[in-house]
Amino acid sequence: MAVLTVGDEVLAGETTNTNAAWLGRRLTERGASVRRVVVVPDESDAIEASVRDLAARYDAVAVTGGLGPTPDDVTMAAVAAAFDRELIDHPDAVAWFETHDGYSNAAASATRLPDGARFLPNEAGVAPGAVVENCYVLPGVPSEMQAMFERVSGEFAGETRHVETVYAAEPESALVDRIEGVRERFDVAVGSYPGDGVDVRIRGTDESEVKKAAAWLRDRVECGERVECGERVERGERVECGERVECGERVERGERGEE
After folding, report:
1. 231: domain CATH number?
2. pLDDT tens sequence across 79-92
3. Where are the alpha helices (DSSP H) in 58-100?
4. Three-class secondary structure of residue 112 per DSSP
5. Which among 219, 222, 224 is positioned nearest to 239, based on CA atoms?
6. Residue 139 sits in which domain range?
7. What pTM was computed for the model?
8. At 78, phi and psi to the nearest 5?
9. What is the pLDDT of residues 16-30, one digit of tens each?
């Protein structure tokens, strides 16, 4: 599936795209496979074109942002246009606003959704969402988006994906042979993410296979230098009181690291 974020502020770097990151995590937990994330400005034509393209290419599309009463909130109309539908006063939206306290002064535009859409109430805010064919239109405010997504999260399912992270205090280029070794020996996907050291993430649908691959790699990487609580543990080190952690994992306050 794909995630489409709408917002000039995201493109300008004024707002971090936390919605896409959160949706990616939750969808992956549900077993869905997010294959693409797209960010577009608050422009009807750009939103419409992206929705048309993504809805045709992927099983489902989650759209966030651009819902509300202000002039730059054009997402719902653009989604309607992408599916060749008219905006109508949706009966379920009208009923919701008439029967819920605190919503009587909502803008009239809040009830206008694509013809034939499924209404998604916004219990954490005002602007409603909608499901139009395979497109899920959600608010841009993170708390509202998250609450609304949980209402429909059961519609996203697939094989559960398991992830293990192995930390290596080595240059990424030095790990190539061992990363290839994981790929050759185990039925998993592997990605390396350099920063302060390298996080190697091992993913797969077989939890046992993922754990075996992670254990194989941990035995073959340099885990790092002596660390303090809150950092990563080195082989053989202890940190005050707590449960045992694997070499290569991060140590949280109260944990004991030992290998």
Report:
1. 3.30.70.2860
2. 999 999 999 999 99
3. 75-82, 91-99
4. strand
5. 224
6. 2-155
7. 0.73
8. -70, -40
9. 999 999 999 999 888
